[in-house]
Amino acid sequence: MKHIFTSLTIGALTIFSACQSNNNNAENAQHPAEHHMDQQQDPTTSQPTAPMAKEAAKQLPDFKFYKVKSGIGFTNADIPANRNTVFILFDPSCGHCQTETGLLAKNYEKLKDVNLYFVSMNDPSLMASFLETFGKELVDKPNVEVLYDRNQEFIQKFHVPAQFPANYIYGVDGTLKNSWDGEKSIDFVIAEFIK
Questions:
Q1: What total number of domains does the chain contain?
Q2: What is the CATH number of the domain that holds 109?
Q3: How far is CA 156 from CA 78, 111, 141, 187, 189, in A?
Q4: What domain of life does the UniProt record list for this protein's source (predicted)?
């Protein structure tokens, strides 16, 4: 019995630490912005970069991410019109992100009229099999895409979340309808996505 409890405890801590370490990465990313907003530079060009977004963007900002499967650029112009658009900032190793993705996949029929974009700054090779592993029902759906944020635009233009997964819902007009960090009940999540 003692070994079972120990295994369960270690498993729970592993899942928690995955999301917690990502949380620490987001917080660590935020500290330079707080202390050196004017001194941040892009290491590849030595040009100053934009400060990090402390508040969720009220209007959908211009962005350029990259489709994980093809490497093709993806911008605002590629978003289908006349439906809610949801961005889920995630880390492939985050247990809460994996759980939310699985629950969204099981409820795909309710979400087929919502644009769903899973965005991460992680190495694309770590993201490549994320949906196949945790959300099989979302694979190859026309309204679902996994996007690589190569230039860390999300935390500069959208928001720096405190926890993953971070969800951002923009309406037909590009206005932020709701956003939250961390885990919520799937009923709440789906209701907000389709509202």
A1: 1
A2: 3.40.30.10
A3: 20, 28, 28, 30, 24
A4: Bacteria
Strand order in the sheet with 85-89: 73-75, 64-67, 144-148, 115-120, 85-89, 166-170, 176-181
Region 165-187: what's the mean pLDDT?
Answer: 97
Q: Tell me which residue has tokens 């370490």.
A: 21
**CA-closest candidate to residue 91, choices 37, 149, 35:** 149
Range of the domain at 105: 2-194
Token pair for 77: 């112009």
- The pLDDT assigned to 24 comes to 41
Section 116-131 average pLDDT: 96
Per-residue burial over 64-94, b = 16 or more CB atoms within 10 Å of its CB, e = otherwise:
ebbebeeeeebeeeeeeeeebbbbbbbbbbb
Provide the token pair at 155: 């935390």
Give the contacts of 163 (CB within 8 A, at least 6 positions apart): 19, 22, 23, 26, 96, 181, 182, 183
**Predicted TM-score of the model (pTM):** 0.77
